[in-house]
Amino acid sequence: MTPGKQTLRPRGSRRFAALRHLTGLGLLLGLSLPLQAATPSDQSFRAAFDDARAKRFDEIQQVAVNGHVLEGYIEYHQLKARLPYATAAEVLSFIERHADSPLAEWMRGQAISAYGRTGRQDALLEVSDGVPAGAQRQCYYYTAQLSNDVASASQGGLKLWHVSGSQDSACDPLFSALRERGVIDDQAIWERAMLAWAAGQGGMVSYLERQLPSSWQRAIAAREQLEGNFAAITRLPTNLGHGGHAFAALSVAAMHGFVRADTEAALEAWRKVNPHMPMSDEQRHTVERDLAWYSLVRDIPNNRGWVDQRLTILDDEELFDLRMRNAVRDGDWPQVREWVLKMPDRFRNEARYQYWLGRADDSLGRPQEARAAWTRAATERNFYGFLAADRIGQAYSLNRDDQDFSDAELAEVAETPAVKRVRALMNIDEIGLARSEWFNAVTQADDADARRLAAYALQQKWYDLTVFATIRGQLWDGLSWRFPPAWQHDFQRFGADAGVDPWMLMALARRESAFNPTATSPVGARGLMQLMPGTAAQVSRGLGLPTPSNAALGDPVTNIRLGSTYIREMLDRYSGNRLAAAAAYNAGPGRVDRWLADTPGEYDRFVERIPFKETREYVKAVLAYRVIFESLAKGTSEGVKVVSDREVSQRYTTALVDRR
């Protein structure tokens, strides 16, 4: 039997309710409840934990483990070391006993891998709880399923097969078995070869084509003809055999390359061949979506009529968005209005689109319609909702829904096993494991318990865990938790030193790291404000400080000081303009300089025309977050502005760049 998920307060749990009743009764009567028996210290457990990780099981001092809240971590390493020989019953017993910890699913995954490698398929299926994550474990899982559910194994195996690159070697037995059963047939091999061709994986293409019989030679020759000459697609015979499947897969792959190489010529070719293409609706949609997207991104005038005709059929928000943004860039207000109104309701009703509808109506002499659109937009708590509120002179809608908990309620949270493990792991400097325990606890919590966890984390000044609780718990309106006063004194201190608004600094840090001081990005940015080591070294030299080590950038005070100075440099570069400075903080000043050379001059159109979606969303988030931080600190949004009057009146051109 697979154990069900447990929450912080398991639904229907009498033990939690009884504990709450006894705790509350004890407080009311002034009684002291009996304490648990003394358990080993966290530091004595540390040595045992190190021994377990190193598989020095004979050296573990059991007295340091027995009764400790992290005892399961020792058992995890002991059981893991016995795989694949440990029985499925032992694994399931461990999973059930640790169901409220990430240890349970980690053990399940380890068992699936170990059983899969050694062919213990019955044991693998016994410990599985549905399809596992990751291609390797999925291949083991579907290989095991071949013995009792061929249909599911075939469906899952085909999905794993249809990728452009190589799969893990664990998939080889599954793919071989599916080849023998005819599930992976010549058509599937050709389809994968075409995926590889579209992705530029020449070696994989050659490998797969060598597996095809001679009857596929016409199709292979056709692909070779298109290599480097996609326009030849208009001259290819559609009958390449194999019921049209060969030509359809080849055409999708060829159009993929053609659209990227020459979008205008690709559309011209598509008009000619589309009526004769033996394609599925899904394949045709893939090609046309690609054509529309590149036509809009590259803004090809000759493709615009076709794109406009296809947009409502393709029904894709990103395409509608691009079409509207191009019209915003051009100041073509009739087109802005037209495309917002053509959007399906699920897109059109967002604050962003209602804001631009208001701008279009206002520019077209429709003040009442403009006000109505801005009024709808102003109900939302985001950048465009705040801009719309400014347009109509309305207070910002913060839509706040915080909740206060008593000390007794938070003390209850502290006594839950998951939170006790988090604290113990922090005590032995296992921050990564502590976060995993926290994430698991929030994921398993219901709405009420997620709120308690967020409130408890804030009380403990675990700021990044507070933020995570609101994200995973979807507590979008719990603003005091989503935007905690993390290191507020330091932001105010170094903001004053650098002459930078502390709320802007906090907004940058919230967006960059969600207040995780040890955050490291894939490219190496570090700490609260995600400073690149090179940038940190440059700023330090300017301050007369030694170059900080990577570890030093994890110190909040150091990171805030350097980040405050760097954003000051960006503000100085852009005449104090926060929109351009925030964009430069994210994408680099060189790119922002180029964007200012080719942008509409108005503040809102500048933001909308930032070509990188990440930076565009970043700027909007930082300015909106800044409003929230200042409003929370003041207790009101009155007098708070998302964009200053000066930033509204400035012209967003290269004149904004101070080149001194």
Short characterization:
The chain has helices spanning 14-29, 42-53, 71-82, 88-97, 102-118, 121-127, 135-145, 150-161, 172-180, 186-198, 202-209, 217-226, 245-261, 263-273, 281-297, 304-314, 317-330, 333-342, 345-348, 351-363, 367-377, 383-392, 407-414, 417-427, 431-444, 447-459, 463-472, 479-482, 488-498, 502-513, 533-543, 556-573, 578-587, 589-596, 603-608, 613-634, 645-649. With 660 residues, it is mainly α.
List the helices and strands and how they pair.
Layout: H1 14-29, H2 42-53, H3 71-82, H4 88-97, H5 102-118, H6 121-127, H7 135-145, H8 150-161, H9 172-180, H10 186-198, H11 202-209, H12 217-226, H13 245-261, H14 263-273, H15 281-297, H16 304-314, H17 317-330, H18 333-342, H19 345-348, H20 351-363, H21 367-377, H22 383-392, H23 407-414, H24 417-427, H25 431-444, H26 447-459, H27 463-472, H28 479-482, H29 488-498, H30 502-513, H31 533-543, H32 556-573, H33 578-587, H34 589-596, H35 603-608, H36 613-634, H37 645-649
Task: Tell me the fraction of residues in β-strands, as a range.
Answer: under 5%
Helix content: 55-70%
The termini sit apart by 71 Å
Summarize the main sheet. Answer: none
The general outline is flat
- Please report the number of helical segments: 37
Task: Provide an overview of this structure.
With 660 residues, the chain is mainly alpha-helical. 63% of the residues lie in helices and 0% in strands. It is built from 37 helices and no strands. It has helices at 14-29, 42-53, 71-82, 88-97, 102-118, 121-127, 135-145, 150-161, 172-180, 186-198, 202-209, 217-226, 245-261, 263-273, 281-297, 304-314, 317-330, 333-342, 345-348, 351-363, 367-377, 383-392, 407-414, 417-427, 431-444, 447-459, 463-472, 479-482, 488-498, 502-513, 533-543, 556-573, 578-587, 589-596, 603-608, 613-634, 645-649. Helix 24 packs antiparallel against helix 25. The longest helix has 22 residues, at 613-634. It is flat, with a radius of gyration of 30 Å. The N and C termini lie far apart (71 Å). Mean pLDDT is 91; it is low at 1-38.
